[in-house]
Each structure stands twice: as C-alpha cells, then as structure tokens.
Amino acid sequence: MANRGQPPKFNKPSDMQKKIAAFWAYIEEKKKPATIERLCCFLECDRDTLLNYAKKDDYYELVKKTKLEILADKVERLNTIGTPTGGLIFDLINNYKYKNKTEVDNNLALKPSPLTPEQRKQISKEFGFE
Questions:
Q1: Angle between helices 13-30 and 36-43 (to 10 degrees)
Q2: Can you give the three-state secondary structure of 24-44, one letter per residue?
Q3: Measured between alpha carbons, how far is residue 125 from residues 4, 116, 117, 130 in Å?
Q4: Considering Cα of 62, then 64, then 70, then 72, what sign does the dihedral take?
Q5: Tens of pLDDT along 103-122?
Q6: What are the extents of the domains in the chain?
Q7: Which of 18, 46, 105, 115 could join 119 in a cystine, given CB atoms 3.0 to 4.6 angstroms apart?
Q8: Whole-model pTM?
C-alpha cells in the first residue's frame, strides 16, 4: 500500500532544531512574544502537526523543551510592568491547565445570636420591622 498524506516536514530532529533556533532569533530580533502559534508559522505547520511530532520519540524532548520555554516566556511577561496580562491569563488558563478559581465555603454554621430576645425585639422596632 502506498504512503498516504504529505511527506514529513522534518526528516530528522536536527532539521526541526535549526528552524526552532531561527524562531528564537526572530523573536529576539523583532521583539515579538513567543507563542506556539508563531512557532507553528516558523515551522510551517499547524498545532496538531507539532503535537504529532511531539508523540515521536526522536522529537519529544525537542518539542517539550521548546513548549516549556514558550510557557516560561509567557509567565515572565505576566510579571513585567506595563505588559497587558488579560490575554496571557486567558491563554494560560485555556491552553496550559492553569486555574483561576475562587474557593467559597458554603458550609457556614449558624451561630446563636449574642442578643437576648428583648434586645432583638428592640432592634426590630427601631428599624420598623414590627
């Protein structure tokens, strides 16, 4: 049976490594933010293709390291004064399993009132509840 689909973009990890090195040089030179999408543009592939390369033993460490460097860049930009953070936070929550949650304790026990029944009645009168 004949091979299906397009031939691989990278025949060996060193080919991909050269393109990734060019990606980092471009990012630094143009002062662009490092993103997976920009990396995919440089590699001339989509996210799914990049993830498929990451499943291959020969490419796993290379893709993993590059993705971690991009993540580190995003987290560092969160701590840079003057950098808009809304998009970074959205990206981290939706693409990197970060959490933005508030915990609410709904198990509040009712405590007995420190007021006597007469005091409660007096307060109710003062506020017009009686």
A1: 120
A2: HHHHHHHCCCCCHHHHHHHHC
A3: 84, 14, 12, 5
A4: negative
A5: 777 776 777 778 888 888 88
A6: 13-95
A7: 115
A8: 0.69
